[in-house]
Amino acid sequence: MTDSKDQIDQTVKANDVVLFMKGTKTMPQCGFSSRVAGVLNFMGVDYMDVNVLADDGIRQGIKDFSDWPTIPQLYVKGEFVGGCDIITEMTLSGELDQLFETNGVVYDKDAAEKIREANA
Amino acid sequence: MAITLTELETLLTESFPQAKVTITDLAGDGNHYAAEVIDESFRGKNRVQQQRAVYAALKGKMDGAHGELHALALTTKAPE
Q1: Which pTM does this prediction carry?
Q2: Range list of H helices, A23-94
Q3: Which of B37, B45, B46, B48 is the best mutation test for A, with the most CBs of A within 10 A?
Q4: A78 torsion bin: left (phi>0), alpha (psi -120 to 50), beta (else)
Q5: Do A83 and B75 touch (CB under 8 A)?
Q6: Cα separation of A96 and A102, whole Å?
Q7: Are A44 and A108 a contacting pair, CB within 8 Å?
């Protein structure tokens, strides 16, 4: 268990944006993971995807790491940002844009606006 | 395993007695719900802290493959 925790800690610190998800960014295997990966893909964010289905240690470890029971989980600069509902809300409110800007994460502002227009 | 809307409501109102709780059964299968919890205790907390409190109220029902509740879309906020 300690190994998983160390591995997760190193992963979220070594990569600016990390999404722990079921499946991969190109082939998500759960609707909630798919939604968050879809937003990041569409916004052109360079992020690392970690498929929790490929590793049971990580699958349980990530829940203990963040004290959060569900997947997907998004991390920016080592900080847990939220799960599917929170990321959706933050995308629509523009808070996700602000978070990326504050942390120097490159993203496509026009794409973010398109998501908001489509869901207005 | 599924959970009824009433059971879910009971769990949430036990932990948040003053809250306005609205639950919707999204798929009619007792497995996919949306819940909105509006409670004064959320004031000043960020969304992660608010939703952690809701998950805590569910006492492990969301836990992984053996959880009774597969999907719960959460909206949390303090009263306007």
Answers
A1: 0.89
A2: 31-42, 56-66, 84-93
A3: B48
A4: left
A5: no
A6: 10
A7: yes
Extract the tokens encoding A120.
């207005």
Question: Domains of chain B (ranges plus CATH)?
Answer: 5-77 (3.30.300.90)
The amino acid at B59: K
From A6's Cα to the closest Cα of chain B, the distance in A is: 21
* Residue A61 contacts B where some CB pair is shorter than 8 Å: no
pLDDT tens sequence for chain A (120 residues): 568 999 999 999 999 999 999 999 999 999 999 999 999 999 999 999 999 999 999 999 999 999 999 999 999 999 999 999 999 999 999 999 999 999 999 999 999 999 999 998
B48: contact with A, CB 8 A cutoff: yes
* Complex-level ipTM beyond the 0.90 threshold: no
Q: Does domain A2-118 have CATH number 2.60.40.10?
A: no
Report yes or no: B7 and B45 within 8 Å, Cβ to Cβ.
no
More confident residue, B3 or B36: B36
